[in-house]
Amino acid sequence: MPRRQILSSDEKERLLVVPDDDILLTRMCFLSEQDLVLINKHRRPANRLGFAILLCYLRGPGFTPDKNSLPHDGVMSRVAERLKLQPDLWREYAAREETRWEHLAELYRYLRLAPFSRSLQKTCIRHLYPHAMRTDKGLILAEEMLAWLHNNNVIFPSVDVMERTLAEAATLADRAVFSTLTTQLEQRHKTALDNLLASGDEQLSRLAWMLQPPGKINGKNVLQHIDRLNAIEGLALPEGITLSVHQNRLLKLAREGRKMSSRDLAKFSGTRRYAMLVCIISEARATLTDEIIELHERILGSLFSRAKRTQAERLQKTGKLIQSKLRQYLTVGQALLNARESGEDPWAAIEDVLPWPEFITSLEETQFLARKDNFDPLHLLTEKYSTLRKYAPRMLSALQFSAAPSALPLGNALDTVREMYRKQLRKVPSTAPVKFIPESWKKLVITPSGIDRRYYEFCVLNELKGALRSGDIWVRGSRRYRNFDDYLIPPADFEKSLKEKQLQLAIPTDCQEYLHSRMTLLASRLEEVNAMAIAGDLPDVDISDKGVKVTPLDNNVPSTVSPFANLVYGMLPHPKITEILDEVDSWTGFTRHFTHLKNNHVRPKDKKLLLTTILADGINLGLTKMAESCPGTTKASLEGIQAWYIRDETYAAALAELVNAQKKCPLAASWGDGTTSSSDGQNFRVGSHGRYAGQVNLKYGQEPGVQVYTHISDQYSPFYTKVISRVRDSTHVLDGLLYHESDLEITEHYTDTAGFTEHVFALMHLLGFAFAPRIRDLHDKRLFIHGKAEKYSGLQSIISTTSLNLKEIETHWNEVLRLATSIKQGTVTASLMLKKLASYPKQNGLAKALREIGRIERTLFMLDWFRDPALRRRVQAGLNKGEARNALARAVFMHRLGEIRDRGLENQSYRASGLTLLTAAITLWNTVYIERAIESLKRKGLQINEPLVSHLSPLGWEHINLSGDYIWRNNLKLGSGKYRPLRTVDVSLYKKQA
């Protein structure tokens, strides 16, 4: 088998380590009476200590400590204490190699450990093979191999032997993947795939054309995408050709292939070339399907928005005329009243104030003003019918829809419209389904003369949008619009985990036990807060018949913080942004996580090129301008780095490195312990090609933009970021808590109003997070209880008239557990499920059950909010940190007018990730130097008021040079353990101010 590198040097070092966990160390170092008898057979104290340590290592993690280094301190101290010996004896023991080997042979017999023979190696490879079919990540395979060795009482071989074993398993899996993907291909398939790579001198290859992004949001680009999808279907690849290969493998091969030119792909051997093309085509089919649906949704959205704007403009234009008519008819009405009272002729009275011909004209004008299309934008939709008609027939023909039982009427309506398009019918059949039509559409669709064709088509395609989002209708070949049940763990696997109590959720899995505990807590909390409300003891909260009023928090930042912050920041060096990145990398080595797409152990030869590419993303300069601003670089070299080393997962791993480094800084503990966090969305305008990908969020105006959603810890480190476009913030709250890669253990999370829904409250609780949103319209929210509101007279005005429906929870309890378990295990992302739940019709049982759980948790939270001002202050402080971090991000992301001009979501994601990495690096650099500045002040004899330190922020940027030429200066590189000199400040001036 060919030798290949499976593990990086860092991974090799991390592979055989003893964890720093007191419970695991205590368990590892336990010595039984039988062990002690064996140990005490050795006369010399050093031999007893060494033998015992080797015993603990072999029986615990399975390997032995290196003879040239000391064992883990926790192991040495525990074993030495148990044997009543000095830990220093290890040095004496380690000096005799022969004794060590004799002891190992004795321990192998005692523990019944077998050597790692060639036959066991083959058995191990067979065990690793299915794992290698799922992933090619060496560390994951190595951990699985260690577990196998440990469970089978096999002596751990050297790391080199382990790596050769892993390489054999990985190579066998690679060959099997390529073979599986190509075995079913006939010669006609291979010829068609090869033709995709052919291109003229100046023309795109057929493959490159298939992979083009959608462009502007219009019918023409929908048709072009349908052409691409039809071209893929025209290849007629065998059905299910990719089903036997794990999704991780498919995605990696597809991503690798997309980065290559058609010429590069053509150079591969036949088997590998065809396998990669199959993966690329498979992923492209799913992407095109999803993008066609998204284009359709956005076109519909723009048509509805245009209709609303048109209706609003018409109302504005006719506003003066409407007022005139109102005054006119008020005058006529008054004249009629006067005529009745005086007994005069009413017709003459009207003639006196409004001549009859003018009265008739006025009636006609009023009839025009009173038309429904002046007040209901739905009446204006058909003015843009041609836009829909341009692409809808081909879209319905190209996509294959399936419907859940609850959505069958809509599914049948789709078939009807598709058939009308195919047969070019001008009228809607009288038998066409109409049960799915909402009340707001019925008068437009169903008319006295029959079904209005245009409104029927509009209605069907608009309802399709909601059904796709909820999962009631799904699309063959889609990644984002699949059957809801397909996203969850299989029912049989769930039932097995439930029976074995392996769901790993934060709640009791028995429904009655869960409900009893929550209802008991709710009743207790209601009684407590009710008593406080009656006594007027709720701090800064007033509950009366008019509702609830919470007094805003006062500013608790001491006035002395500002002079202290100015003093400390005045001492910080004034670096360039390039110097900060270079220095932070020297501390953390975060650049080592940017590995090659094809080989996880290859890193860029020129680290400065990598840092330059990251900087181009983070400051929004782009590769072309960055090449001009950074001497010694070219656009081509930066594009090469971006193509092969910049990915979402490499950015995430590098960010985790910086977050972990921040967590280890002593100063960071002054701001928090790393267990609370907040999240917020930040809107960036889009320009140039980015306008096609941007979407309008009315919260930020009428201009299209991109929303970047970021999670930040209480230690100011941003630990997760995601481009979320126009989606409500609450959809993505859980993603950051579940999928970040740092060592933070978040237990409590804060958001603003946009970050909460009842479904989010429910899932946060089920997955073990305390959720505390700052709800802007809290006075409009109601408490939900199980029982009579009269029991809580102090809260009665804010208790909902709708009681908690515990039956819904009981009925759908297993569905709730299955959903939460699927999210917890990573089978599906939380954001995708929350989107679908939000789109579910109100009668859906699972959505209703989650809503009831969410109501319980929101009620408990509101009661805590009323009674606990400390909670309000924590939430306020957490959100303030997020807003301050957003200000830093806005300052860093300064080029191109702060606009995102990338058309594709992938490149937009790189911009957001680069920006987050830069802000994390600045935060870490500031933290380190603020800490050094404080220590310097203490050495100078300044008495530091420690509570002031907790009010300092590491998010300042005025001392950092963010613009100009971006030069990497090797001659300014600091040595290991060296720092830049602090600036001199006048401490006496601060003392006077303080």
TrEMBL record:
It holds the Pfam family DUF4158. InterPro entries: DUF4158, Tn3-like_transpos, Tn3_Tnp_DDE_dom. GO terms for molecular function: DNA binding; transposase activity. The keyword DNA-binding applies. Residues 579-966 form the Tn3 transposase DDE domain. Residues 6-169 form the DUF4158 domain. It comes from the Bacteria. The keyword DNA-binding applies. Keywords: DNA recombination, DNA-binding, Plasmid, Transposition. One of its GO terms (biological process) is DNA transposition. Belongs to the transposase 7 family. This is Tn3 family transposase. It comes from Kluyvera cryocrescens (Kluyvera citrophila).
